[in-house]
Specification:
The protein is mainly α and 180 residues long. The protein is built from 5 helices and no strands. α2 packs antiparallel against α3 (45-61) and α3 (45-61) packs antiparallel against α4 (65-81).
């Protein structure tokens, strides 16, 4: 275990140097938590608490609630390891509170997403219904136009037929008069 801790410390130190060089605020914050994990594994609670507090401060500054939650959980363990059960309980309560907050946020996002999907489906359904009604109205108007054209054509045909019948009758009368 001791060899693994020494190797882990070397990896953490090298990662920390790289992240500082790159000015990677999230990476540095993660390294602070890794240092805390290292010292917690080495049963050095005071050092672990120091590094978790640094990570906690950074997570709050970076508005990174998942790291904040992790730090509170680990601080609870570190304080318990150090024998300070009062602070262990305080850190665990903070961990539970942020966990509840994150879960509430997640549920709120899920409910909002479901409401949005429902509203979208309702609007789509309404739009589909409106398109269907429009199509039906266009069909009715089209049928009415066909009937109007048919009626106008029939009326014109009847008038034309009546005109020919009247003309034919006039011709017959004129022919009868000419024969007399």
């Amino acid at each position: 275990l001791n060899k693994n801790l020494i190797a882990a410390r070397q990896v953490f130190d090298e990662a920390y140097r790289i992240r500082v060089f790159r000015k990677d605020a999230f990476g540095i914050m993660e390294n602070y938590a890794c240092f805390g994990d290292y010292f917690l594994a080495a049963a050095q609670s005071d050092s672990a608490i120091f590094w978790y507090n640094r990570a906690l401060d950074q997570s709050r500054a970076q508005a990174y609630p998942f790291m904040t939650r992790y730090c509170f959980a680990q601080l609870s363990k570190a304080h318990e390891l150090g024998g300070n059960l009062f602070f262990a309980l305080q850190m665990h309560r903070a961990y539970a509170a942020i966990t509840d907050s994150l879960q509430t946020d997640q549920r709120t996002r899920q409910v909002t997403e479901l409401e949005l999907r429902f509203e979208t489906m309702e609007k789509d359904r309404e739009n589909s219904l409106l398109r269907q009604q429009k199509t039906e109205q266009q069909l009715v108007v089209s049928q009415q136009r066909v009937w109007m054209v048919a009626l106008a054509s029939a009326a014109f045909s009847i008038l034309l037929l009546a005109f020919f019948v009247v003309q034919r009758n006039k011709q017959r009368e004129a022919a009868k008069r000419d024969r007399k």
